[in-house]
Every structure is written in C-alpha cells, then in structure tokens.
Amino acid sequence: MAEKTSDRFAVARAALSWIPHGVTIIGAADGPERSCATGTAMYVSLVPPMVAIAWHPGSRTCTLIQKTGAFSVSVLDASQQDIAERAGRSADGPDKFATLQVPLLEAPPDAGGAPGVAGSIAVLWCKVRDSRESGDHLLFTGEVVAYQVDPAKVDVLLRFRRRYAQIGHDTSPEAPEGYPI
Ligand SMILES: Cc1cc2nc3c(=O)[nH]c(=O)nc-3n(C[C@H](O)[C@H](O)[C@H](O)COP(=O)(O)O)c2cc1C
Prior knowledge:
Number of domains: 1
Number of strands: 12
Shape: globular
CATH topology: Pnp Oxidase, Chain A
Number of helices: 4
Bound molecules: flavin mononucleotide
Largest sheet: 7 strands, antiparallel
C-alpha cells in the first residue's frame, strides 16, 4: 500500500500502473469535430462482442463519445509509440487527428462514424450500449459492430509501470480450442 500522501493519484501511480495494458487510441467524431486520445480497453463480453473503456469527463474524446454514442479502439503497434505520446495530451483545433497528424482510417458504413488510426494492428468500431459513472471516470461499454485486423502485425505496444514497452516472444502455440481469446 502506498504511503499516505496528499497526492490524490498516489495509489494509481503506485498500484494501478502495475497492471500491464495494450496501448490503444480511442477515436470519436461529431461531423468535422474529431478527437483521439491514448487509452486502454478490455473485452467484457464475447457474445455479443463488447469492450469497455473508462474515460475522464474532462476529455474532449469523452464528450464526443457521449454525444454520438460511438467510439473506435485502435490497437497500436510498437512503431506507433509516437502517436501514443502525442495523443495522450489535449490539442488545439477542431480535428485532433489533423492537428497531431495522426493517420486517419475512416469508419466503415453503419459503424458509428468514429475514425480509427491507420496502420494499427487492429481497429474495433463500437456503439455504446451502456455508460455509467465509475469514480472519477465514465465507464462506456461498447458493442463491436465492425473491425479490421492486420495479421502481419503482432508487435504490440504495451504500457506498464508508467513506461511504454514491447511485447516479447510467444511462449506457446496458438490454442487450438477452448477459450476464444
Ligand atoms: C498510456 C496512456 C493511457 C491512457 N489511458 C486513458 C484512459 O484509459 N482513460 C482516460 O480518460 N485517459 C487516458 N489517458 C489520458 C488521455 O489520453 C489524455 O487525458 C488526453 O489528453 C485526452 O485527450 P482529449 O482531451 O483530446 O480527449 C491515457 C494516457 C496515456 C499516456
């Protein structure tokens, strides 16, 4: 347990940062207003396929997700670390993709309209099925309504101990059956 301190993020820094995560970019758009931000995601249902993201209400991306009921999750490759570093801060202008020169991948038809990041390992387009307060964040659960995967890319960008990291090598063959993930 962290020492008692006036820093309200002390436990987040000392404990939550030890949960390893794949780094994603969460995208959202309302017409010409487009935003993207570095974030984390986890799956919370297999059938239907659903993912959850927790977003702080001060973020522009969060506001756009609330407005449109849609978001994208782009799973980053290690070569895209610079995008994660840039998108983890707020940026000026109506289109954060343009301001930060983040390569944009348009949403497929009927997928909610949130842009993804071109060149990612995978992009999931989600429609919000539930949102609720979760401490200082809003927890959005989204159903995956479209996706794109590049099977040639497996060099996932990770976040662990407040650092970016790369995934190591496989330690087993692909599971032939059983749990689908
Ligand atoms: C590795 C990493 C992971 C992050 N994960 C989240 C997250 O899951 N939820 C969140 O609200 N902010 C997260 N952030 C912070 C946002 O990316 C940051 O607040 C960003 O400036 C929001 O941009 P916006 O205001 O343009 O939406 C993360 C930042 C980093 C560097």
